Every structure is written in C-alpha cells, then in structure tokens.
Amino acid sequence: MHDLLKFAVEAEKCGFRTMMTSDHFHPWWHDNAFGNFTWVWIAAAAERTKRMQFVTGVTAPIYRYHPAIIAQAFASLDVLYPGRIGLGLGSGEAMNESPLGFDWPRARARLTRTKEAIQVIRRLWDAEDFVSFNGEYYLIRNAKLYTRPAGRMPIYMAATGQKATRIAAKFSDGLITYLELTEAGEVLDLFDKAAEKEGRDPGSLEKMAEYKVSFSKDYDRAFRSTEFWRATLIKGVFDSDVSDPRRLQRRAEKEVPDEKLKEAIQVTTSIEDCIKPIEEYFKAGFTKVYVHSTSPDEMDFIRAFARGVLPHFIKEKGGKTIAPA
Questions:
Q1: CATH of domain 2-211+272-293+306-322
Q2: Domain boundaries along the sequence of the chain
Q3: What are the tens digits of pLDDT across the range 108-147?
C-alpha cells in the first residue's frame, strides 16, 4: 500500500491525470501478493495528491457491497475530494465473493445486480429526499444520503459481452473494457448504437481501454514481472467459481503458456514502443487509455513514460487536456 501511494504521488508529478485502482478481496495470484481495501487507499492517495482523479476498476455490487453502502462511501469521498472521484462498476469475480460465504451466481444474475446497483446509487446521489427501490435483487426503503456528493460523480461500467454493453450504454457515464484491441471494435460499435437508441449522445460518454505493459531495460526482468497476471488469462476465468488464489496460480502455471502472456501484455525494453499501441486505441474510438503497468520498477516506468510517451498524447482541445490515464 505504501509503494502504491508513492507511485500515485509520482504519477501526478509526471503528468498523469487519472489513476484506476482495482477493488478486490482476494488477488489474482498467491505468491508475494497483497490485498488492501481500496476505498481506504483512495482516501489516503487523494490526500497526498492535489488534482489526480481516482476511479475504481472495478467495484462489484454483487454480495459483499450493498449498492447503498457504495453510494454512501463514494459520496463521502467526493465531498472530501470534489471532482476527483469516479466509480467503476462491474459484475465481479468469484474470488471476491465466495471467500465470504456467498454462492457464485450465474452471469445473468450478476449483470442484473450490477444494473440495479447503478440505479440505486444514482437515485441516492441525486435525491434530496428519501427514496425507495424494489428490484429483483435489491431493495431500499425510505433511504436517504445525508451526505451527498459534492457534484455529479461519473459511474462507469465494465463490459465485454453484448448484454453488459447495452446496460452500460443505457445507465452509465462510460464504458470500461479489458478486451484486446482486435476484439474491442465490435463492443465500441454496439455501445455507440445502444446509446443512440436510448436517446443519448455517444460522444458524451467515456470509452476506456486497458493497455497492459511491462517495461525494463532487461527484457527477462520485464517478462518475469508479468507473472502476477497469468491467472487472468485462464480460459473462462471471469465466469469461473474458483476463488482461491493458490488454485488460480496452480491452474495458470499449467494452462497459460508464456506465449499467451506475451500476447496479452506488451513486454518491452524501449518505452517508445508504447506509443503506437496507445495510438491504435484512440484511433479505434476510445477516449481514454488506462496504462496498466506491471513493470519491475514502477518509478522508473512512470518517469520514462512521462518523458518518452506522455508528451506525444497530451493535447489541448478547447482548454481540456487529453491524455492517457
């Protein structure tokens, strides 16, 4: 947690505008892993920075978090750090729910819960009076947030499938997708069409992509640093009921070859190699690129990226700075 705080401070100094942070109970890997509580960390990081925006990537309103509690927590963060907090929501993974004694629901149930959660959170944030909601999964009776957000806080939704993408287009302020660029075009097209069908302007909605990279002058060291994310490449892992990081690690070591890891994460000894892939995301229609570094020396990566890549993308448009996150 302390290292992450240092990275956040350094990233702001070097020109990054937004930081996305995962929200997990269990991590993806067992060896040398950590499992901090993200909401607490966001407050500590926001206190140590001045302008950096923090977005969860993503919070899952499935079992362990009731949407009203999410609404209360993030409203409080926004009051403390106005305009610097964003909420990313998604349908989650078993490793964050099953260890707490919950059965892992099917995809449809998780997606419906996520949709209802967005509605509950937005109603609580917007309402000056008491509100009620009676959904298939969530119920609130005469609930009121006595500490509401300082302004209109964005809600983003992670989506890859068609149903999730349509829900994101209808209810959220933007899309987060972890798909590779070759698969993302279809999702972006569906998102824009679904938004238009709902009478919304697709141009007003964020579209965020994740770009994974590991950088070091030593290629082997850069590659070894990607090991932590091997389990995310297990086939069907996001719908799997596996919740033990030890088991995820064993499966990943058996089922995910090095070649697949290198295809999913750009391993490079030259920081300038990051420019073209990020350009391709913007050309495809994304409005923001989340640079997910798993470099062995993150301070070195931040500084090298700020010198060699960030200036290529920072542009002034109508007084607004456009840059990767």
A1: 3.20.20.30
A2: 2-211+272-293+306-322
A3: 999 999 999 999 999 999 999 999 999 999 999 999 999 9
H or E segment to which residue 308 belongs: helix 298-308
* Residue 323 scores a pLDDT above 60: no
- How far the first Cα of the chain sits from its last, in Å, is 20
* Nearest-angstrom CA–CA distance, 226 and 205: 31
Helix, strand, coil % over all residues of the chain, rounded to 5: 50, 15, 35
- Enumerate the active-site residues: 24, 93
User: Please, is 301 exposed, middle or buried when counting C-beta atoms within 10 Å of its C-beta (0-12, 13-18, 19+)?
Assistant: buried
| Dihedral (Cα; 62, 64, 65, 69), 10-degree rounding | 150
Quote the CA–CA distance of 266 and 227 in Å, as a whole number.
13
Question: What is the three-class DSSP state of 177?
Answer: strand
User: Taking the complete model, does pTM exceed 0.85, yes or no?
Assistant: yes
Q: Which residues pair with 19 in a beta bridge?
A: 54
